[in-house]
């Protein structure tokens, strides 16, 4: 971990961060737009779409598989058949192949499923703090404690749901209140302390401006 010092270093750092963040935002769509030609040659491995299979899973009629081939049942995921307002699903295209995936979230969990070779499979396992964005990327946003802090992580995924890029920002309060006084940037390898709130706000503003209103969530009913 290192602290940004000096005008030249700060300017270089700010420019680098802005360029990196812009690259993440602008390329998230293109980086997930399609599988490689070699991958697409094997049609059985290319994610597909089956609305009836999605519906049957939500109704507890079929079983999904994770990447270890372990079974996932909708009632196991929620713990019971008693639902609340946080138990939702959405059909939304994350990998930009023109076919929506099944998004299921409730409480602190959030799963995305697709169909491969007529089997419902886990595309990616997120947390309840992750938000799918309109550009196909995902924003992790969480307020934490001990000490009080806020974390943001912007992640990009490939055609098959594997994370390919991540950039993060955090701010901490040494007094454990709303007066944040320490700020960090993370490039995926290490934390870099940012010199001021002004710089942190400038770097996170574009990140937080990306909307997620294209994802339409609906209540789940078994």
Secondary-structure map:
Elements: E1 2-3, H1 7-31, H2 37-40, H3 51-58, E2 64-65, E3 71-72, H4 74-78, E4 88-92, E5 101-106, E6 109-116, E7 119-127, E8 130-132, E9 138-144, E10 149-157, E11 163-172, E12 182-186, E13 191-194, H5 197-208, E14 218-219
Parallel strand pairs: 1-13
Antiparallel strand pairs: 2-3, 4-5, 4-14, 5-6, 6-7, 8-9, 9-10, 10-11, 11-12, 12-13
Helix pairs in contact: 1-5
Radius of gyration: 20 Å
| Strand arrangement across the biggest beta sheet | 1-13-12-11-10-9-8
Which spans have pLDDT < 50 for at least 5 consecutive residues?
A: 1-6, 29-35, 37-41
Oligomeric status: single chain
The tally of helices reads 5
Please tell me the overall pLDDT: 82
What is the distance, rounded to the nearest whole angstrom, between the alpha carbons of the first and last residues? 49 Å
Biggest sheet statistics: 7 strands, mixed
Query: Beta fraction of the residues?
Result: 25-35%
Overall geometry: elongated
Question: What percentage of residues falls in helices of 4 or more residues?
Answer: 10-25%
How many individual β-strands?
14
Structural class category:
alpha+beta
């Amino acid at each position: 971990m290192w602290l940004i010092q000096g005008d030249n270093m700060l300017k270089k750092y700010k420019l680098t961060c802005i360029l990196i963040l812009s690259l993440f935002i602008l390329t998230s769509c293109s980086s997930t737009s399609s599988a490689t030609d070699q991958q697409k040659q094997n049609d059985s491995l290319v994610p597909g779409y089956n609305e009836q299979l999605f519906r049957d899973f939500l109704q507890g009629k079929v079983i999904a598989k994770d990447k270890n081939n372990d079974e996932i049942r909708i009632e196991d995921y929620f713990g019971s058949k008693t639902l609340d307002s946080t138990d939702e699903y959405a059909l939304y295209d994350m990998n930009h192949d023109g076919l929506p995936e099944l998004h299921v979230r409730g409480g602190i969990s959030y799963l995305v499923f697709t169909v491969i070779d007529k089997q419902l499979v886990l595309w990616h396992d997120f947390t309840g703090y992750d938000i799918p964005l309109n550009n196909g990327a995902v924003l992790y946003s969480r307020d934490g404690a001990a000490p009080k802090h806020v974390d943001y992580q912007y992640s990009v995924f490939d055609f098959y749901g594997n994370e390919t890029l991540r950039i993060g920002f955090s701010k901490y309060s040494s007094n454990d209140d709303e007066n944040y006084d320490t700020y960090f940037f993370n490039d995926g390898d290490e934390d870099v302390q940012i010199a001021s709130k002004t710089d942190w706000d400038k770097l996170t503003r574009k990140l937080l401006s990306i909307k997620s209103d294209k994802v339409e969530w609906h209540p789940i009913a078994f």
